[in-house]
Automatic annotation (TrEMBL), chain A:
Lineage: Eukaryota, Fungi, Dikarya, Basidiomycota, Agaricomycotina
One term under GO cellular component: nucleolus
Annotated region (Disordered), positions in chain: 1-108, 317-394
Superkingdom of origin organism: Eukaryota
Brix domain segment(s): 127-313
Pfam families in alphabetical order: Brix
SMART domains (alphabetical): Brix (SM00879)
Protein name: Brix-domain-containing protein
One GO molecular-function entry: rRNA primary transcript binding
TrEMBL record, chain B:
GO BP term, example: ribosomal large subunit biogenesis
InterPro entries linked: WD40/YVTN_repeat-like_dom_sf (IPR015943), WD40_repeat_dom_sf (IPR036322), WDR74/Nsa1 (IPR037379)
Positions of region (Disordered): 368-416
Segments passing through the bilayer: none
Summary of subunit composition and partner proteins: Component of the pre-66S ribosomal particle.
Family to which the UniProt record says this protein belongs: Belongs to the NSA1 family.
Protein's name in the database: Ribosome biogenesis protein NSA1
Top-level lineage group: Eukaryota
GO CC term (a single one): nucleolus
Organism: Sistotremastrum niveocremeum HHB9708
Role of this protein: Involved in the biogenesis of the 60S ribosomal subunit.
Length: 411, 416
């Protein structure tokens, strides 16, 4: 008699009978699997080597470890940077490519992250950060900004102007750069939901736009810890590519160089599959090996959408056209600078102060000083005019066509 | 197997030999000592490499007869008039010498040194001044004229010899805010032709003049120059100096984001490549101003492009990648769609931001993709000839609805 073929349960038209057969088959299959696993567990109980071998062999394939090769990855093993060559033992400990390291050391963040030893920068002093919202922000934005103020030491919040006093982000960045700020953060709100964050490194540094999701304020975190004004420690995980390094260093510039270890606060930015997870914890060592964590909050997720090379562009299409001019001497430069400082002072209406008011305040404060010194100070201030560019250049922008597979990541 | 030379923001010169996908050899052939200064302009012609840096220095190298593969320095000089907020916008080499131009309008012509090592003191370079706030400057293919354009500086064509001899000293400045009246008698000494602004828009407002890139499309001996400009608003305009001052064609909104950053003329007739301020690189048909195809997979703004004679295009972008693209033929009919689109063959990671790239001009035997395509065409012909011919009246001739209709109209007993 020919062997009976297994019949498909889907061929049974009667629903009750069909369900019965399927259930029985599934149960049988489950029991067979359990039997197999119990046998393996029994064999491995006395043989830990076998267990180790099995675990080493059965590494699950995930999107993270099946990641598509990105040529911009900066790895400790430069030989592996070509997808076809195999890694050998002799190449493993060579370290990242020196040219990549040189490029990183000369990027716009290097002046704040690795200042020359002769500079008088206090490593504990937090860099000035200007925090603001999108125009016509509501309570949601202000609450999130309050949280950010506690995270970033040195952050100052300023409300966005209304109506005529609403100035473009590019102009705000230029103004802030001239006033000694290190970074501008703009919290964007859409329909009563905070949805994006723009980080603009000053004076001429890159601007990054992140989409914000999964925001959990500290009040919503059960048994959350209380934040203190100590400088936090920073943990940046899994920034692998050159773009990842730029983004990581950008976040590094927000915080002071030296943390207060006394405060036991740690801020973590963990990158996984191009999503940056922000967490803030307080740690306490229970023993020399183990540490307990208590989350302070807030908790949010960021995703980079674009990274522009300079400040956000300001397209001043309405300005009066200057005539055809010839460039001759060097004197016109400084005059231009002073003129524009005065003009910017009048234009920068975010704080509601005009340039004249500013000067009046200065004069009140400097009652005892000489007029000459005031003039010099004014000139110094005037020389630090930072103009936003006329057009944007993108170092990287996300486009749907870039994600050719689910395993493609850029950070 | 084309070879490209690229310069980057750290002032290094790199040679990239591309042989096939995934196999490109990148080597740094020259590095400047001291403070790193970005390379802003580069030109390569007949074995001579001209580079200009952000600090005002410019160097001329010879790439031939080098045993170590390193370039030999022929001349170097510094543009002393260059100030911090301005930059080099173009460097070109000719048989006569090297021309460099800055955005402040300082043009310098350095004649080629007969011997290696002669500096500025021994060979005087000729300088001239053209208006400031320039964005692009080009020397004509023959070297007899040059053109420039910039922010509120309209396209202008000058004669090279008159420019350097007629004006040793810069012209008198105009008072800021006063517009120059565009009369033909108002041309500066040395200037041959100046463009006129496009007519006011539908609100009768003056259209701002902001040329971001320009190139010579054609230069005829009779003095008619055809030029193309890319503007800040994203339009591409073509001019004919003989036909008039207004642009002959004005194609708007060719740039997706921002203005047109780069323009290069392709080797095929009517082919133009444009790069915008976003990450778009597109091929444009000059007959009708339509974008034929855009390259997919670019993630950063293009900083420079270089064309080879073998239908390959190399582009460098701000995401530190050098990409090799294929270019495809234009449609035969004006207004038709392109059959095949250009593809990205390969990308190489250059560890610093590349700013300029040039092709070395050497055509190798294995390069010619055109001959390869001809072989493919022959293979196609074989396929067609080997296909069985269908006779009339057979079943295969009609399909679907037609066959039903035939069957319906088929009258029994009347077929032959």
């Amino acid at each position: 008699m020919p062997p009976r073929k297994r019949f498909e349960a889907s061929a049974i038209k009667n629903k009750e009978k069909r369900e019965q057969v399927v259930r029985a088959r599934k149960k049988e299959k489950g029991q067979e699997k359990l039997k197999r696993r119990l046998e393996i567990a029994k064999a491995e109980k006395n043989d830990p080597e076998a267990k180790k071998a099995r675990l080493e062999k059965n590494v699950p394939r995930t999107l993270d470890n099946m990641r598509e090769f990105n040529p911009t990855m900066i790895t400790a093993d430069p030989q592996a940077s070509s997808s076809k060559s195999a890694t050998t033992d002799e190449n493993k400990d060579r370290g990242p490519d020196p040219e990549s390291l040189l490029d990183i050391s000369l990027d716009p963040f290097s002046s704040s992250l690795s200042p020359p030893t002769t500079s008088l920068i206090d490593p504990f002093k937090p860099p000035k950060v200007l925090l603001t919202t999108s125009p016509r922000a509501t309570k949601v934005s202000y609450e999130f900004c309050e949280e950010l103020l506690s995270v970033i030491p040195g952050a100052e919040f300023v409300r966005r102007g209304k109506g005529m006093r609403n100035v473009e982000v590019g102009r705000i960045a230029g103004w802030a750069a001239g006033r000694g700020y290190g970074c501008v953060i703009v919290v964007n709100e859409d329909r009563k939901v905070v949805d994006a964050l723009t980080l603009i490194h000053l004076p001429s540094g890159p601007s990054a736009y992140f989409k914000l999701t999964s925001i959990v304020p500290s009040s919503k975190i059960s048994s959350h810890a209380r934040p203190t004004p100590h400088n936090p420690e920073l943990i940046l995980n899994n920034f692998v590519t050159r773009l990842g390094h730029s983004v990581g260093r950008m976040f590094q510039t927000l915080f002071p160089l030296m943390p207060h270890f006394q405060g036991r606060q740690v801020v973590t930015l963990h990158n996984q599959r191009d999503f940056l997870f922000f967490r803030r914890h307080r740690y306490a060592f229970r023993s020399t090996e183990k540490a307990a964590l208590q989350e302070i909050g807030p908790r949010f997720t960021l995703k980079l959408k674009w990274l522009k090379k300079g400040l956000p562009a300001v397209r001043n299409l309405g300005e009066a056209p200057p005539g055809v001019m010839f460039d001759e001497g060097g004197e016109s430069e400084e005059d231009e600078g002073v003129e524009d400082a005065a003009k910017d002072g009048r234009d920068s209406v975010e704080k509601g102060e005009t340039g004249e008011e500013d000067r009046d305040e200065d004069e009140e404060m400097d009652d005892g000083e000489d007029r000459e010194e005031k003039e010099e100070e004014r000139k110094k201030k005037a020389k630090k005019v930072v103009r936003p560019p006329k057009d944007d250049e993108y170092e990287w922008m996300w486009k749907p066509e870039l994600e050719t597979t689910r395993r493609t990541f850029f950070l | 197997m084309p070879t490209f030379y690229a310069g980057d923001e750290l002032g290094q010169t790199k040679r990239i030999r591309w042989t096939s996908p995934d196999q490109s050899l990148v080597e740094t052939i020259f590095e400047r000592e001291g403070a790193k200064s970005a390379m802003q302009v580069m030109d390569l012609r007949s074995g001579m490499l001209l580079t200009g840096f952000a600090d005002g220095n410019a160097s001329l190298f010879s790439l031939q007869d080098s045993e170590s593969g390193k370039p030999t320095l022929i001349q170097e000089w510094k543009e002393s008039r260059l100030r911090s907020q301005h930059r080099y916008i173009r460097a070109t080499i000719n048989e006569k010498g090297a021309y460099t131009c800055t955005s402040s309008g300082h043009v310098r012509f350095v004649p080629l040194a007969k011997n290696i090592g002669e500096t500025e003191e021994t060979i005087p370079s000729q300088v001239t001044s053209i208006p400031t706030r320039l964005c692009d400057f080009r020397l004509s293919p023959s070297g007899n004229s040059f053109a420039y354009g910039g922010e509120e500086v309209d396209l202008s064509v000058w004669d090279v010899d008159t420019a350097f001899t007629a004006r040793g000293s810069p012209a008198e400045t105009t008072v800021a805010g006063q517009k120059r009246k565009s009369k033909s008698s108002d041309l500066l000494p040395g200037e041959l032709w100046r463009a006129k602004n496009v007519p006011n828009d539908f609100l009768n407002l003056r259209q701002p003049v902001h040329i971001t890139s320009l190139l010579y499309l054609r230069e005829t001996t009779s003095g008619s120059n055809h030029l193309a400009t890319g503007t800040y608003s994203g339009s591409v305009r073509s001019y004919d100096t003989r036909a008039g001052k207004r642009p002959v064609t004005d194609w708007k909104s060719l740039a997706q984001k921002g203005g047109i950053k780069l323009m290069e003329k392709g080797h095929r007739e009517h082919e133009l490549f444009i790069a915008d301020m976003g990450s778009e690189l597109a091929a444009v048909d000059l007959r009708n101003g339509r974008k034929l195809y855009t390259y997919k997979g670019l993630s950063g703004s293009i900083s420079a492009i270089a064309l080879t004679s073998s239908r390959l295009l190399a582009s460098t972008s701000l995401d530190r990648l050098l990409r090799i693209h294929t270019t495809t033929d234009l449609p035969l009919k004006d207004g038709g769609a392109v059959e095949e689109k250009g593809q990205i063959l390969d990308q190489t990671f250059l560890k610093s931001i590349p700013t300029v790239i040039c092709w070395d001009g050497e055509v190798n035997s294995g390069d010619d993709l055109v001959s390869q395509r001809r072989d493919d065409g022959e293979a196609d012909d074989d396929i067609w000839t080997n296909m069985p011919a269908i006779e009339e009246g057979s079943d295969l001739e009609t399909t679907g609805k037609h066959s039903k209709r035939r069957k319906a109209s088929h009258v029994p007993g009347s077929d032959q």
